[in-house]
Amino acid sequence: MENPFFMPLQQKPVILLMCGSFNPITNMHLRLFEIARDYLQDDGRYKVVKGILSPVSDHYKKKGLISASHRVEMARLATKGSDWIHVDAWESEQDAWIETIKRKALSCKIISSYLYFLFADQAKVMLLCGADVLHSFCVKDLWKKEDIEEIVGRFGILCVSRHGSSVPRQLIQDVDILWKCRFNIHIVDNWILNATSSTDVRREARRGHSVRFLVPDAVAKYIEGNRVYTDKSEQINSNSCLAPFSIHRRPETS
Fold first, then answer.
1. Is residue 171's pLDDT more than 70?
2. Are 46 and 187 in contact (CB under 8 A)?
3. Is a pLDDT exceeding 70 seen at residue 228?
4. Is the separation of the CB atoms in 16 and 36 below 8 Å?
5. Where is the Cytidyltransferase-like domain positioned along the sequence (predicted)?
6. Which of 10, 140, 175, 236 is at a distance of 20 to 30 A from 211, taking alpha carbons?
7. Is the Cβ–Cβ distance between 123 and 49 less than 8 Å?
8. What's phi and psi for 14, nearest 5 deg?
9. CB neighbours of 53 closer than 8 A, spacing ≥ 6?
10. Are 229 and 202 in contact (CB under 8 A)?
11. Rounded CA gap, 22 and 68, in Å?
12. What pTM value is reported for the model?
């Protein structure tokens, strides 16, 4: 078995951090980690030593967002068989929504404090995402400009996109902040088409349909056994404003 801690001296250790609702986690979420690791390690300059899943707290206020306790448990079930992808429940347990940049800073502290003490100072934390996250940088009031600069410029992004899609590269071309930090953005083509989304899974589950092979088997059994997705659950936060909008649109006080 390969030792995940062994690496040639010229390789830089990388920790991949994926933040999101995971409502629920799907096979595609897990595939993103594998695709990203293959891409970085094929490059020869990097060694991926850890993947971290960080589910958002209930205070994110997204419509249809079920309890973090369910989402975290499903994520743990999904990653139980992985020797390098793990779930960090810290964010989900907070009393308020935590901005992505603070999550990444926290991840650096976690990495520095345990397990990777041998090379934590040299480890690079990268945000792993799909093209939708890059696109979200353009949504007014969803992100702070300084946070985008910090995430992309200091940490870096690895964006997995459908093969043939020009969206991520076009966004980099069109958005000044992304263009400025373009050399810290990795765009990875996903050659195997899988458009399954958490929205699709919730819809099928609400209708009493099978979600097997869309999510890991243990997650499918959890969804069925606990009936976490119903017409009622889809109305959670239906009258609420998404947390980033509530925070970033607040008038400044003198």
1. yes
2. no
3. yes
4. yes
5. 17-203
6. 236
7. yes
8. -125, 140
9. 18, 22, 25, 29, 75, 79, 85, 86, 87, 88
10. yes
11. 9
12. 0.84
